[in-house]
Amino acid sequence: MKNTKVTLVPLAEDDREQFILDNQWAFKYGAMMEFGERDSHIDGDGEIISRKTIERCIDAPDSEVYRIVADGKRVGGVILKIDKKTHRNELEILFVSPDEHSKGVGFGAWCAVEALHPETVVWETCTPYFEKRNIHFYVNKCGFKIDQFWCEYFHPEHEIPVDDERDPDEGPDEMFRFVKVMK
Fold first, then answer.
1. What is the pLDDT of residues 142-171, one digit of tens each?
2. Which of 8, 9, 34, 102 makes the best surface tag, with the fewest CB within 10 Å?
């Protein structure tokens, strides 16, 4: 495994628009590689992850937003949701430019995230079922465990998270939920 040196730099306001576009491209690229250009997972605007969802994550009061930088170049981004009381934190979004895949950038970014928040008791995240690269990354590289799979057969006694602010065309349908217990 490559151990690429990356840094996390707080998102600058003048980089917000490009951050959103880069994020959407990274997710769209993954879907296109899996399904081709005519994909029913792409929303009406042609995106896997909507601008509304990304902006909601960026603007949440408990969020931390970073650019992933390698060799002085912006190569991805991370949005964290930090709970300072429970220390059960969420990785809302992690994306790496498709041009930088398989270079250790994602793993380097994840290591930097863990170093930023050593107080974390549990990390949580999720990814769509078709993102095989992501599933491999979270389980085999970062040490997460699959906790749940949300789909139409999900047992009603389990509660699927509902967020009134989320785009109704996005998740949690057919999503893997991951947890990583730190302490």
1. 999 999 877 766 555 555 454 544 444 454
2. 102
Each domain of the chain, given as residue ranges in start order, spans 7-181
50 and 170 Cβ atoms separated by less than 8 Å: yes
Top-tier CATH class for 7-181: alpha beta
d(C-alpha 17, C-alpha 40), whole Å: 25
Which residues are within 8 A (CB) of 150 and not within 5 positions of it... i.e. 6 or more apart?
126, 160, 171, 172, 173, 174, 175, 176, 177
Residue with tokens 């590289």: 141
Alpha carbon distance 79, 64 (integer Å): 6
State the SS3 of 63-108. Answer: EEEEEEEECCEEEEEEEEECCCCCCEEEEEEEEECHHHCCCCHHHH
Question: What is the CB-side half-sphere exposure of residue 161 using CA atoms within 13 A?
Answer: 15
Query: What token pair was written down for 154?
Result: 């999900």
d(CA 104, CA 71): 13
